Amino acid sequence: MSLNDVQHQTHKWISQFKEGYWQPHEILARLTEEVGELAREINHQFGPKIKKTTEDTNEIGDEMADIIFTLSCLANSLNIDLDESFKRTISKSYSRDNQRFEKK
Q: What is the C-alpha to C-alpha distance for residues 44 and 1, in angstroms, rounded to an integer?
């Protein structure tokens, strides 16, 4: 699924509700919460933090997908094409960082 497909699916889901997209600063706050949930799960599974017996184990992939969904909401609300933005970012990485790291 391309990022455009993700954005389309996100828009299709959001469009069924009267409220529509939240304001960008509200989506950013939600994105921060979702990143925190991912950080907590990573810390539980790979770090020193032990889960409470009352806490469920969450799938790291599901936490990442929550971030992608929320980021897609932000992009859609600002009319940003994530496919195009990502193409520019990866191109910049190849040109700027091509000699930065040891290659296999």
A: 30
Q: Give SS3 for 81.
A: coil
The SS3 assignment for 18 reads coil
Each residue's pLDDT tens digit, 1-17: 999 999 999 999 999 99
- What does pTM read for this prediction? 0.88
What architecture is the 3-95 domain classified under in CATH?
Orthogonal Bundle (1.10)
d(CA 42, CA 51): 11
pLDDT digits (tens, 9 = 90+) for 37-75: 999 999 999 988 787 878 787 899 999 999 999 999 999
Closest by CA position to 4, among listed 94, 89, 87: 87
